Amino acid sequence: MQNLVILGGGYGGLRAIQKLLNEKDVKQVSITLIEKEAYHSLKTEFYALAAGTVADRHLRMSFPNDVRLELKFEPVKSIHLDDNKVELESGDFIPYDDLIIGLGCEDKYHGVPGAKENTLSIQSMRRARKTYHVLQGVRPNGRVAIVGGGLSGVELASELRESRPDLEILLYDRGENILSMFPARLYNYVTNWFNENDVTIINRANITKVEWNVLYNHDEPIETDAIIWTAGIQANKIVRELDVDKDQMGRLFTTKHHHLPNYENVFVVGDCAASTHAPSAQLAEAQSERVAMLLNKKWKGEPYPEEMPKMKLKGVLGSLGKKHGFGLMGEKSLTGRVPRVLKSGVLWMYKHHSGH
Ligand SMILES: Cc1cc2nc3c(=O)[nH]c(=O)nc-3n(C[C@H](O)[C@H](O)[C@H](O)COP(=O)(O)OP(=O)(O)OC[C@H]3O[C@@H](n4cnc5c(N)ncnc54)[C@H](O)[C@@H]3O)c2cc1C
Question: Which SUPFAM superfamilies does the UniProt record give (predicted)?
Answer without folding.
Answer: FAD/NAD(P)-binding domain
